[in-house]
Amino acid sequence: MRYFLLIYALVVGIVVAIAGCRGSLSRKPPIEVFPDMDRQLKLRPQQPNGFFPNGISSQPPVPGTIRRSLPIQTLSGPVYPFEDAPVNTGRWPGVTNFVELNPLAVSGALLRRGQERFGIYCAPCHGPAGDGNGVTRKLGMAVVANLHDPRIVEMPDGEIFHVISHGRNLMQGYAAQIPVEDRWAIVAYVRVLQRSWLGSLEDLPLHLRQSLERQP
Amino acid sequence: MNRLPLMILVGLLLVGGGVVAGVWYYFTPKYTRVGYQPLQPVAFSHKVHVDQLGLDCRYCHHDVERAWFSNIPASSTCMNCHNQVLKDDPRLALVRESVATGRPIPWVQVHKVPDYVYFNHAVHVNRGVSCVECHGRVDQMDEVYHAKPLSMAFCLDCHRDPASFLRPLDKVTDLAWRWSVDPAEHARQQRTQGRWLMEHWRVESLQNCSACHR
């Protein structure tokens, strides 16, 4: 019995020594106790795949591909993503002139959406107030546009949309990251930010003005 | 008196108990998956980008609200900043090469559900289930590791009682967020507010097989 207990303790000790405890960090891939059908012969996004010469399972769409989608509701009616319309390009159809005004109906919901999206995608560089003092300024991004610059305040909405989509100077385009409607929401919110700097006390409703004036 | 039968009995109990304890402890995703921390081709630190710089999860994983799959960002997303920040840093050589050639960076997948599980990221994050519930405090990780078991029991813990996990939509990507700094107050708020959110969004406690297995 003594030998049995000794061997028993030894086996437990060896198992614990080899297997360790739950949650310890390991470079080795997870052990699959029952791997049945865990990996099936189907493609999942962004996984390597030897079938195609470039080894990618999520093949980029062929140039000119039109994605299937619902139309965007604009002020001048529904527009599909493949149409040459201001909401898709920021320009008047057939010419290079940018549209002056946001083609979406600007509502409180759109502005709140724009504020949230601005915080995610724009604020890291342009700063939460849009003055170009984002967190990247300290890290060596020297030239970040101040959105309150008269040059940008005077830009048509369509041009701001175009810059978000395709970038300008050192800024890269965000068309892949931000859907069209969100880009217009951001354009609307950029106007809110600019207005907040350009406005005067007289622009405020009376009760808000008083609360500001009371402060030293 | 013959002590042999007693000794055999004790021995069998010990061996049986040991095997059961071993299987209980080790044959579970709590052991097999948690802690998996593969070596990634680029030393990307979530802690630096999220915790120190304050980037939102969705800056890179921008499809998480629209698709079942939470995308790994394209290398060009890195270049939004790194075309100027750490422009010639050797640690980013692979990223620059990937952008130049179009060959993807061979990131190693950390979190994977079996192919017979149809998990949809969009429906979860759009109904107040935070990233942190399944992925842990990624904002505190220099190197990402598997923090939660992602076993079926783990999914069911939440599916049986969604109210204990739901939070306001604008806090979904705020991994450190609590209803209150006080743990008791947090738990109380989670109960009442969670139940309210569940009714408000009509979140169902889905427990039928085909909710996840199709």
Overview in brief:
The complex is a heterodimer of chains A (216) and B (214). Chain A contains seven helices and four strands.
Structure description:
The complex is a heterodimer of chains A (216) and B (214). In chain A, a hairpin with a 2-residue loop joins strand 3 (167-168) and strand 4. Helices cover 38% and strands 5% of the residues of chain A. Chain A is built from seven helices and four strands. Chain A has a domain at 98-202: Cytochrome c-like domain (Cytochrome Bc1 Complex, Chain D, domain 2, Orthogonal Bundle). Chain A is elongated and about 95 Å long. With 216 residues, chain A is mostly helical. In chain A, helix 3 (108-126) crosses helix 6 and helix 5 (157-166) packs across helix 6. The longest helix of chain A has 19 residues, at 108-126. Chain B is mainly alpha-helical and 214 residues long. Chain B folds into three domains: 1-32; 46-72 and 109-211, no CATH class; 73-106, no CATH class. Chain B has helices at 4-26, 29-32, 46-52, 57-60, 75-82, 93-101, 121-125, 132-135, 152-159, 183-200. Chain B is globular. The mean pLDDT of chain B is 93. The chains are: A mainly alpha (216), B mainly alpha (214). Chains A and B meet through helix 1, helix 3 and strand 4 of A and helix 1, helix 2 and helix 5 of B.
Task: Spell out the blueprint of helices and strands.
The complex is a heterodimer of chains A (216) and B (214).
Chain A: H1 2-19, E1 72-74, E2 77-79, H2 86-89, H3 108-126, H4 150-153, H5 157-166, E3 167-168, E4 171-172, H6 180-198, H7 206-214
Antiparallel strand pairs in A: 1-2, 3-4
Helix pairs in contact in A: 3-6, 5-6
Chain B: H1 4-26, H2 29-32, H3 46-52, H4 57-60, H5 75-82, H6 93-101, H7 121-125, H8 132-135, H9 152-159, H10 183-200
Helix pairs in contact in B: 5-6
